[in-house]
Amino acid sequence: MTHRMTYCAHCGVHYAYQASGHGCLHPLNDSKYCPNCMAVIKVALDKVPKKVEKRWIPSTEYTKDQLLKLMDESDAKLDWLHEERQKGSIIAMPRLRRIGIPLIDTKTGEYQKTRYGTVNDKLYHISWWDSKPDEYEILTEVYWDLINDKMLENY
Ligand SMILES: [Zn+2]
Prior knowledge:
Elements: E1 2-7, E2 14-20, H1 35-45, E3 52-58, H2 64-87, E4 113-119, E5 122-129, E6 132-145, E7 150-152
Antiparallel strand pairs: 1-2, 3-6, 4-5, 5-6, 6-7
The structure holds zinc ion.
Zinc ion binds at residues 8, 10-11, 13, 33-34, 36-37.
């Protein structure tokens, strides 16, 4: 759980923004606006219908082996960036990785394997059980047009 003290972009009060951990998804927890201003913003925005949202959909573009290989190649590029950053030869953001929370089979104690990775600028999530290596699920994150109920290409 990470908290950061910051100043509200509207009213200027000093407040604690919770960047991670239980409670960080609270609708009034925001990195830019204090909870009081967020309450006003939320009431105003509740009147505006959403038009687009990010959504995870099943993907059949790659097999499990293909996707894991491509994710490894993508990670290798990030390893190189990380090493150069550590040496001080380039200025780059620290390496961040999205972490999936695996399911646990309480009968066998087996942990589900999950992995996020970006391939060709698209974010994928893959999950599988080592005891059933040929059964897996691949999802990709897309932008969804809520008015026409369809995926937006190249959004
Ligand atoms: Zn404020």
